[in-house]
Predict the 3D structure of the following.
Amino acid sequence: MLSARLSVVLLVVPLLSGNHAPPIFVGKRRSYGVRYYPEAENPATGNPTSVANHLQYCVANSVLNFTGMGLRRVGDFFVNTTYARELYLDGNDITEISETAFDSMKGLEILSVSGNRLRTDKLLWFRYHETLWRLVVDDNVVGDTTNNGNIREMLEHLPRLEHLSMRRNGITRVEIQLDKFAPILNWLDLSGNKLESFDFLVNLPRTMRNLYLQDNGCLCTINNLPSGIEHLQVSGNRIAELCNENCSEQTWLSLKGLKKLRTLTASRDGIRLVSEDAFKDVTQIERLDLSWNELRFYPKTRSLNQLKYLDLSHNQINEVMNLCDSILTSIETLNLSHNHISMIDKNFANMMYLRTLDLSNNRIAILPTLLIFNSRSLEVLLLTNNSIEDIDDLFKKNSFKELELHLEDNPFSVVQYYNFQVHLKQRDARSELTNRVSIESLGDADDDIVNTDDLDDIDDASQY
Ligand SMILES: *[C@@H]1O[C@H](CO)[C@@H](O)[C@H](O)[C@H]1NC(C)=O
Ligand SMILES: *[C@@H]1O[C@H](CO)[C@@H](O)[C@H](O)[C@H]1NC(C)=O
Ligand SMILES: *[C@@H]1O[C@H](CO)[C@@H](O)[C@H](O)[C@H]1NC(C)=O
Ligand SMILES: *[C@@H]1O[C@H](CO)[C@@H](O)[C@H](O)[C@H]1NC(C)=O
Ligand SMILES: *[C@@H]1O[C@H](CO)[C@@H](O)[C@H](O)[C@H]1NC(C)=O
């Protein structure tokens, strides 16, 4: 690996002789991904004598960092160098970038122009560039009222662009065809804008894998996404329904054809309805976050048998009786906290891998003993802040399983444990006095206090 890299360098170095190192030289770039090796600490990647000129070696892959230098305009042939791989122009006052600014930077792969004052309609105003694969133009918000937030035009396309980030720019509309602009785009982040429509998503290239549309507050329908999408983030919009084909609400997200989808984050969207066929095509999904929505029922879905993480916290679900209908056979973490659940289905038995179950902040009145004793894989069970008044059943059975059980903020105040009646807190005083503990001995041991009948029933009922 190392020798391969060095031989490339030796080829490059002669081409560079005669050029000068650029004034802002940061380090060299070793591979895709963003790793920096500041010049001073750089161990020169092996035996320095094998590299004709150490400085030139570094220059050949240079990172130019012009962050926070008060630049206002990026002129023609901004830096006349063919060897820069990464260029950072963040945190300046740039209002304008010349069309030919980067023309001489033939090998440029990463360009970042965040935190400047580029007008929204010029955010994608770039000339054809052969090697650019990552473009970051975040936080270019201008108070200018002539700028209506539309990205209406592009100049030329960027054939290698895979990663495009345009967060928090006040973008209201995207009218260009993104598959023309960036035909092999893989990653698109438009979060934190003010998008008023997601119609432009129809023109995303088929190479798309990661799509981030959160926090646009968009009362919008999302439809016809490219089928290769793996990670989709749409939180903080106004999407009333998840569906496949027959969508009935005013706005919706159609998951039709998203066969590769692995994570979906749709929190804070006002989702009221998950139609039964919503996940029909989404068989590979592993993480699903539907927290802070308005779901009243546990979504009836099938084919979620790859799902490991499901967050339904902060909804209005009042029972989870139909959990057994759903095929959550691989679920590991299930978060149902902050709902209105009072009844729990006995049948968590299908969930062979369930490790963490959060039922805190609900209205559960009866300790779910079946779940506690019979779920083999469960490691953490949160029942904090429910209405459980009696936890005596916990002590009627010898159990050797390990379980972290949270029962804080429940109204029980006395626990019966063999001959002890343990008072844990003052009745009806749930706040300050919660830690007061007193123990009364009830005299000689007599097993009749412990009634094991209930638990025998439980054992009979459990077949797993
Ligand atoms: C560029 O320089 C700024 C400070 O001058 C630093 O915070 C930033 O991390 C640098 N960026 C890169 C990519 O090296
Ligand atoms: C860029 O530099 C090369 C040689 O270093 C020179 O021939 C060329 O004229 C320069 N181009 C511009 C636009 O300055
Ligand atoms: C959608 O609705 C139409 C007409 O109501 C029906 O024919 C079709 O089978 C439905 N499709 C699904 C997937 O439910
Ligand atoms: C469940 O969700 C709530 C609220 O969204 C969060 O505070 C809590 O930490 C989550 N529980 C687990 C076990 O992750
Ligand atoms: C306990 O849950 C109730 C709703 O059931 C909620 O109003 C209250 O704020 C919760 N208390 C705490 C300490 O979270």
The chain has a mean pLDDT of 79. The pocket of 2-acetamido-2-deoxy-beta-D-glucopyranose (ligand 4) is lined by residues 291, 313-314, 335, 337, 356, 358 (CB under 6 Å). Residues 2-16 form the longest helix (15 residues).
